[in-house]
Recover the amino acids of this structure.
């Protein structure tokens, strides 16, 4: 590109030189024609003939010399030679009007050779004009009658040179400014093209579908993933979405007006709405849809973008997980039922007290495991079942003491120490079995996620408005804010413990919070990375009637 541009510039130089000289030659031809008509005998004058021939010779020189290879200063020789030749013609025929020919080399030199060219083009004709008059008058004095005519020549030429020079300078400045603006525009255009190409590559690299559209609803962007997402449903070349899409039940079709894409075209925001592509009974795909409008600098709607993500595999995985949990829970229920049954039969026999005590512990724990298995089944179910609670007077302090006693053997393996304030009896109507399940889960977490030789601080007290508050603080690893945001999600386990030796299902806290909520209380955790975790349970200490009323009002709440 640079070589072609340089050749074009050099060719333009040669063309400019020849055209400028051609103007002088053309004007000279006109002058010769006028002379031929008015006074043919003048053409025989040697000086007149020499001047005309000189101009034609300079024209031939302008055409023959490769001026692109010659320094620019040498090009100035052409208008100078023209001025000298015009001077010869004027000297021979002063009344023919040859003085006007000086204008053409003046324009040429003022335009192309800046200030010194303009000065030279004015001074040289003035010298030739005045010098010629002196020679013609014998070198003594100039005839006073021709002085006004001689004075006009440099003035007119100076005016022409000044006008051409200033105009050329302004044109050059404007040309430079336009070139700068053109360069800036070209840079902006190139940057815009690079950004568009980068965005196109970015959109084609992601694995979710993207459709962009302008304020008039005209689609101006469809990425690769969106085209591939539409392919299994046999869409034509011009189609981007199925003609019919279905709601989350997979059978109820959307009305045209309510479809997410139509809502997006109207400038509405769609936030994570799941739709189904494909006809019922055939292959279907679950698509998570979100859209955002684009607002211009004046706050007006200017199009938008809608994003489609195929979550079919994720939904299948969740269902497979729930089916697995339900299946395993059913398999566990059968042997546990046998353990409970045979333990009760053994307790009916006449056995030593020590054996009876161990069997009673076995029976209680088997009953608890049956309850936990039932909770697993409920947690894995897609329904909104609530846990069945049985309210009766119970002592929360005794439940906490039993929980500590049960977990102590496990805690001793990691050399953990329980620091327990005096536990005063707190008796109120609640489901003791479910509260024990919550307490065991909290203590189990405090042991599993604690540091070796750490502490577990337990405090139980009453607070204002008739609430009991249980605080269990461990000295373990703690949690980040991101981990705390998902603590009560079903099956959630933090990344920091998922691949560790600490085992769990991720259901304990979710079930525990549901139990506390059904009691009318609250379960929350306070934690900081490296500073341990504090589990806080608050429970209303109500009579049985109030508790049952609260439980009835909470039915249907997950």
């Amino acid at each position: 590109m640079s070589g072609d541009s340089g050749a074009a510039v050099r060719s333009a130089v040669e063309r400019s030189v020849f055209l400028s000289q051609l103007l002088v030659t053309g004007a000279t031809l006109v002058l010769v024609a006028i002379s031929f008509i008015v006074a043919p005998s003048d053409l025989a004058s040697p000086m007149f003939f020499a001047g005309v021939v000189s101009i034609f010779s300079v024209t031939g020189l302008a055409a023959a010399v490769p001026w692109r290879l010659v320094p620019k200063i040498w090009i100035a020789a052409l208008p100078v030679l023209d001025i000298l030749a015009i001077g010869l013609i004027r000297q021979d025929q002063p009344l023919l009007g040859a003085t006007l020919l000086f204008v053409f080399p003046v324009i040429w030199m003022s335009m192309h050779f800046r200030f010194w060219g303009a000065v030279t083009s004015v001074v040289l004709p003035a010298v030739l004009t005045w010098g010629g008059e002196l020679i013609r008058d014998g070198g003594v004095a100039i005839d006073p009658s021709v002085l006004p005519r001689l004075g006009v020549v440099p003035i007119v030429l100076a005016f022409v040179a000044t006008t051409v020079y200033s105009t050329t300078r302004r044109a050059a400045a404007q040309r430079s400014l336009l070139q700068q603006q053109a360069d800036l525009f070209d840079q902006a255009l190139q940057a815009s093209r690079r950004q568009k190409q980068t965005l196109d590559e970015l959109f084609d690299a992601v694995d979710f579908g993207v459709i962009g559209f302008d304020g008039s609803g005209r689609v101006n962007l469809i990425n690769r993933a969106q085209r591939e997402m539409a392919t299994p449903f046999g869409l034509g070349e011009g189609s981007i979405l199925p003609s019919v899409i279905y709601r989350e039940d997979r059978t109820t079709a959307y009305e045209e007006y309510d479809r997410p894409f139509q809502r997006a075209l109207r400038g509405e925001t769609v936030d994570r709405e799941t739709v189904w592509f494909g006809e019922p009974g055939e292959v279907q795909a679950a698509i998570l849809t979100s859209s955002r409008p684009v607002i211009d600098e004046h706050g007006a709607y200017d199009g938008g973008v809608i994003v489609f993500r195929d979550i079919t595999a994720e939904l299948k995985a969740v269902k497979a997980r729930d089916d697995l949990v339900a299946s395993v829970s059913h398999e566990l229920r059968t042997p546990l039922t046998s353990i409970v049954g045979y333990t009760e039969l053994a307790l009916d026999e006449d056995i030593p007290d020590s054996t009876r005590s161990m069997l009673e512990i076995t029976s209680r724990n088997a009953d608890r495991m049956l309850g936990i298995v039932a909770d697993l089944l409920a947690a894995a179910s897609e329904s909104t079942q609530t846990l069945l609670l049985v309210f009766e007077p119970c002592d929360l302090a005794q439940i906490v003491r039993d929980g500590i006693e049960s977990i102590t053997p496990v805690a001793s393996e990691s050399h953990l120490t329980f620091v327990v304030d005096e536990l005063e009896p707190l008796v109120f109507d609640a489901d003791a079995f479910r509260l024990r399940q919550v307490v065991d889960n909290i203590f189990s977490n405090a042991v599993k996620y604690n540091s070796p030789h750490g502490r577990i601080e337990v405090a139980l007290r009453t607070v204002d408005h008739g609430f009991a508050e249980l605080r269990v603080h461990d000295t373990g690893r703690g949690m980040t804010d991101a981990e705390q945001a998902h603590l009560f999600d079903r099956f959630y386990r933090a990344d920091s413990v998922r691949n560790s030796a600490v085992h769990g299902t991720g259901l304990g806290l979710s079930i525990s919070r549901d139990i506390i909520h059904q009691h009318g209380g609250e379960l929350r955790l306070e934690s900081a990375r490296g500073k341990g975790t504090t589990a806080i349970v608050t429970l209303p200490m109500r009579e049985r009637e109030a508790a049952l009323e609260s439980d009835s009002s909470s039915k249907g709440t997950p």
Residues 498-504, 544-548, 550-558 have pLDDT under 50 and may be disordered. Residues 147-205 form the longest helix (59 residues). Residues 75 and 462 are 107 Å apart (CA to CA). DSSP finds 17 helices and twelve strands in the chain.
